[in-house]
Amino acid sequence: MGLLPRQQSSAGETFKAYVAIEALVWLPGLYLLCYRYRPTVRFIETKAGGDLVRTVGEWLQRNVPSQHAKVVKLSAGVYGSPNGRTFAEWMLLNKVLAPVSLPTKFMVANSIANRRAAQRIADAVEGDEFVVPGLSAVADRGRSPVLDRLLRQ
């Protein structure tokens, strides 16, 4: 004789859903968006973006010329190929968006895992895989209003 199981999912189920979201949706989706829309190139092409890059470049050249040379060499290599630019933008956006995207992905993963756990409970009740104490006599005749109320909780 078992009791109604919890409707909350385990941490393992939530983690599996998070890994699926991260590996199958977020990372490839963000990479494709960076490849298609080129966010840093578009930003630099605006007046404000061009002015910002020019101002920071002049400041670096004036105060730390060795670092300026490294940044120029790195940016020439990164922006020389579409895949290098896309990878750099992808890494940058992953870091910048992490404070918002990480909790959001865990929230979505937890809701998916909880929904799966609730579905397993409903399937178990429909399949008579366990007996609810005090309702065993009614379980033979089908679902009762009491059982329906327990399932809605």
In short, what is this structure?
This protein is an all-alpha fold and about 150 residues long. The protein is built from 7 helices and no strands.
Describe the secondary-structure layout.
Elements: H1 11-37, H2 39-45, H3 47-63, H4 65-78, H5 82-126, H6 136-139, H7 145-152
Helix pairs in contact: 1-5, 3-4
Overview of this structure, please?
This protein is mainly α. The chain has 7 helices and no strands. The model has no long low-confidence stretch (mean pLDDT 84).
Distance N to C terminus: 20 Å
Secondary structure tally: strands: 0
- pLDDT < 50 stretches: none
Shape: rod-shaped
DSSP helix fraction: over 70%
Instruction: Compute the number of helices.
Output: 7
Portion in beta strands: under 5%
Structural class: mainly alpha
Average predicted local confidence, pLDDT: 84
User: What is the alpha-carbon Rg in Å?
Assistant: 27 Å
Whole-number count of domains = 1
User: Tell me about the biggest sheet?
Assistant: none
Q: What is the H/E order?
A: HHHHHHH
Summary tags:
rod-shaped; mainly alpha; about 80% helix
